[in-house]
From TrEMBL:
The lineage of its organism: Bacteria, Bacillati, Actinomycetota, Actinomycetes, Pseudonocardiales. This is VOC domain-containing protein. Residues 6-125 form the VOC domain.
Length: 132
C-alpha cells in the first residue's frame, strides 16, 4: 500500500514549458523539482506531475472524460485554493460550485484549465468518507 513517501505520477502534454511553469509554480504554488529541455517535473500537492513538451495538446479544455486534480480532505484547504485562484486570476472553467447537492456525495468543486488545455479539478466532500 501507499506510504507517505510514495507519489502518484501524472503526465500531461504542454505546448510551452515556460507557460506550464508560470501556471503550476507561480499560479498554483506547485514546487519545481526538475527542468529539462523537454519536460518539467513538479511536486503537485504531494504527487508528481510531469509536463512534457508536446505539439499535440488538446484544442480546447473539456473536463470529461479526462482531467486530474486534488480532493481536499479539509474544507479550509479547498477554501484557501479558491482564494488563491481568484487572487491570481487563474483560468476557471467552472465553479466553485456544489455537485450532487442533498446527497451523500455532495461536494464543492472547481475546474481550472492550464495553458495547454489540460483540465484540473479540485474538490472537497462534505462527508470525507465519500472521497473514494
Amino acid at each position: 500500500m501507499r506510504n507517505p513517501y510514495d507519489a502518484c505520477h501524472i503526465a500531461v502534454p504542454a505546448r510551452d514549458l515556460d507557460e506550464a511553469m508560470e501556471f503550476y509554480v507561480f499560479g498554483l504554488g506547485a514546487k519545481l523539482a526538475r527542468r529539462y529541455d523537454d519536460r518539467i517535473t513538479l511536486d503537485f500537492f504531494g504527487d508528481q506531475l510531469v509536463c512534457h513538451l508536446c505539439e499535440d495538446v488538446p484544442d480546447e479544455a473539456i473536463a470529461y472524460p479526462r482531467h486530474f486534480g486534488v480532493s481536499f480532505a479539509q474544507a479550509e484547504d479547498f477554501d484557501r485554493l479558491v482564494r488563491l485562484v481568484e487572487h491570481r486570476k487563474l483560468r476557471v472553467l467552472s465553479g466553485p460550485a456544489i455537485r450532487f447537492e442533498g446527497t451523500a456525495e455532495q461536494h464543492r468543486t472547481l475546474f481550472l484549465a492550464d495553458p495547454s488545455n489540460n483540465v484540473i479539478e479540485f474538490k472537497n466532500y462534505d462527508d470525507p468518507r465519500m472521497q473514494y
